[in-house]
Design goal:
The chain is of the alpha/beta class. Helices cover about 40% and strands about 15% of the residues. It has 2 domains: about 20-135 and about 300-310, Rossmann fold, CATH 3.40.50.1370; about 140-295, Rossmann fold (3-Layer(aba) Sandwich), CATH 3.40.50.1370. It contains 12 helices and 9 strands.
Amino acid sequence: MMAAPALSKIAQGDLTKDLDLTPDELLGLLELASDVKRSPELYRSALAGKSIALLFEKPSLRTRMTFELAIQQLGGFAIVNEGRVGMREPLKDMARNLDRWVNAIVARTFFQKTVDDLARWSSVPVINALSDMFHPCQALADMQTIQEHFGTARGLKFAFIGDGNNMANSLMLNAARLGMDFALATPEKYEANPAVIDQAREIAAQSRSKITVSYDPAEAARNADAIYTDVWASMGAENEAAERRTAFADYQVDEDLFTHAAPHAVFMHCLPAKRGEEVTDNVIESERSIVFDQAENRLHAQKALLLMLL
């Protein structure tokens, strides 16, 4: 049997945010994810003897299933703990207990500070499986999916319609590094983080791509190769759901919005979707929808991430 290729190590040692990966590491990870997907048998024992803690403050389908499966299929062992990090004992104590037992920590948290503090106090790699600021694991799978469908990301236009949330932040940063134009359309008061926009524009200047931000979904969608959306009220913001439905009423991704996009444009969503709110059932069930390709690639991108960290 052919041996697995040599793996490059992620210099940062953690993935607390998207920019912990250098541009070369990002490209290498996407290449490795594709290889893992093509030839999973080459990596079946890669994490033999490794244990990884999965900390979940928020419930999950895709994140939990794909991380548990990724670890198992690489020969490792996953241990899951649910509940708020740092509630029963100080976070710094929890982190220093875990790093005596496991080889890495995966954390799906309400706040970015929780992930950052875990990385500060732990001597083993920490992976951000979602926070209020970033969702790097989903963005990696999304970039892999884009490359599969178009052959390359460079030169494409990627439109994000809806809430300027963690998903918008991560996608914007990764699109800029891969040379994609990124157009973000949000309602007023729901813009993306200004510091992230500034970072993305600095990166885009180097990659010769463009970041545009507006309140006009039709303009963002114009000639787009991919249109992406997310729920209007993320987990933790359910008390704002009624207010947000009003604010986002003109930001639904429907067939009319796709008339502004390129004829070959695809639809993307990180799931779960609220059909009839941010996207119509017709769009998510159409031939242009690649949402389940994205979901599948969570498994492969996270395998690649674990391989490069461990």
